[in-house]
Amino acid sequence: MISWRRVAVGAGLLALALVPPLAAWLDASFYVVLFTRIVIFAIAAVSLDLILGYGGMVSFGHAAYLGIGSYAMGILSTYGITNGFIHFGVAIGAAAAIALLIGFMSLRTSGVHFIMITLAFSQMIYFLCESLNQFGGDNGLNIPEHSSFGGLIDLDDAVTLYYLAFGCLLMCLWFGDRLVESRFGMVVRGAKSNDRRMAALGFSTFRYRLTAFVLAGAMGGLAGVLLANQTLFLSPSIMHWTRSGEIMMMVILGGIGTLCGPVAGAAVYLVLENMLSGLTSHWQAILGPVLVVIVLFRKGGILGRSRHA
Amino acid sequence: MPDVLLATRGLLKRFGGLVATNDVTLEVVRGEIHALIGPNGAGKTTLVAQLAGELTPDAGVVEFGGVDITRRTPAERAALGLARSFQITTIFPEFSALDNVALAVQARSGHSFRFWRAARRDASLREPAQRWLARVGLAARADVLAGLLSHGEKRALELAMALAIEPRLMLLDEPMAGTGPEDAAAMVTLLAGLKRQQTILLVEHDMDAVFALADRITVLVRGTVIATGTPDAIRRDAAVLEAYLGEDA
Q1: Which of residues 221-240 of A touch B (CB under 8 A)?
Q2: Range B151-166 average pLDDT
């Protein structure tokens, strides 16, 4: 079982690494665009899985961090700041700071209350951005150019952008994998399993859970600035609450608490969406049942484990 | 002057019209096994919850090692050395038995903002954890998921976790609840092995166990302490016989 998982994960990541040459060979550069989107959403899904799968924090507002990352880049660009290091730094930092604020308040609740309060915060950010008329309001805004890394990395090239996103995904997976097995990770997982027992052992788990929440928010911000670089368009729709639902769906589809599963979840979700939306404008009526069937027949998700924590 | 480790003075807790804890003054002497008994509804669980910090008393003081801990959280109390087991088994069912105890060891070894090294390959956590498991007779079950252990094994695992934080006092809330006679006997043997080494406040229904283990017994009836004394004194106490033991006899 473990070896099967390892082979699947290795093969999947290798396949992702080979997307650009395969697309070039097939003369279908469109696939680079689709898979860039997949990889970016995979980062968002992995970051949500860190807190949802390992920390039991059902954050129903994760798209907010995508939005914050995007708006950070968009706003900086509007003011003529195109330096990529600044873009990425501010995007990640802003997402982390707002995650700190949201987490500080919402982690005092649990269960349905936590779901609702994270949703409420993300809606507040959504409507705030929608009201920013100087940055496009609800119509959105074109971003003039990609983040510039002074000739080091040229994001005008779609393949370069793809590999940058893919590299970021690999780093997030690697970091996440270390994190969940570390002492810190054991505390967060213990809090999910039985917080009363954690308290009885002497752990005040709040600050650990809050730290995990902030790390996940920062990763979401990273996904956001990458997404803005791909679309070169700023729109509040990126953090609509349905987007948060999609990211959660990717996690559930791929396997909660598996880190690599959400990558598969993002791929399946976005490929299906792409195929079905080409067939009919009512593609969601087909996608919904397909997802239900997958989740029903493969309970722990595509890369789900049976019992182990 | 006895060396008092845990003390309450004038503890009071009301739920609406019901006085669950009524002016309870209790002293647990260092090194002793102190049993808390009383009929169902006597308020034992409410009292334990106030000692552990899950309930805040309406009045009165809880002191631990000379420090007023009345307003401290359960986690803060545990960090001060007040370990506990629960009436209803409270473990990490998705973790192995060894993981469960290793987390307890981790609680004792500084902050856990350590993000990189794998905790499950950390000998400074795993080796002590394995020793505590051996102490309660679970050495061979280290890799079994805690949720799959038998009920008696889960109770032993909780004891190992309480021991692993190397507490100054263990608050054991009915450690034999729901176990069969064999497991109960094993638990009595385990606890007897801790006598004189570990201060314990033992809440227990099993009278044989209580009289076999306790150095001192406090009897709680309708939220009020009606007697405290040695097992022999409690056996002869007229008020206790009438209020409590008499009912069973």
Answers
A1: none
A2: 95
B-interface mutation test, from A183, A193, A205, A206, most B Cβ less than 10 A away: A183
User: Chain B closest CA to A79's CA: distance in Å?
Assistant: 37
Subunit contact A182:B118, Cβ cutoff 8 A: yes
> Would you call A196 and B94 a contact, using CB atoms and an 8 Å cutoff?
no
Q: How many CB pairs under 8 A join A and B?
A: 101
Which residue in the set A178, A190, A200 is minimally distant from B78, CB to CB? A200
pLDDT at B245: 56
Residues of chain A with pLDDT under 70: 1-2, 305-309
Task: Transcribe chain A into DSSP letters.
Answer: -HHHHHHHHHHHHHHHHTHHHHHHHTT-THHHHHHHHHHHHHHHHHHHHHHHTTT----S-THHHHHHHHHHHHHHHHTT--BHHHHHHHHHHHHHHHHHHHHHHHTTS-HHHHHHHHHHHHHHHHHHHHT-GGGTTTT-EE--S--B-TTSSBTTSHHHHHHHHHHHHHHHHHHHHHHHHBHHHHHHHHHHHHHHHHHHHT--THHHHHHHHHHHHHHHHHHHHHHHHHH-EE-GGGG-HHHHHHHHHHHHHH-TT-SSHHHHHHHHHHHHHHHHHHH-TTHHHHHHHHHHHHHHHSTT-TT--SS--
The pLDDT > 70 percentage for chain B reads: 97
Establish if A306 touches chain B: CB-CB under 8 angstroms.
no
CATH architecture under which domain B1-81+167-249 falls: 3-Layer(aba) Sandwich (3.40)
Q: What is the pTM assigned to this prediction? A: 0.93
Q: For chain B, give every residue range classified as CATH 3.40.50.300.
A: 1-81+167-249
Residue of A nearest to B91 (CA): A197
Q: What is the mean pLDDT of residues B147-159?
A: 95
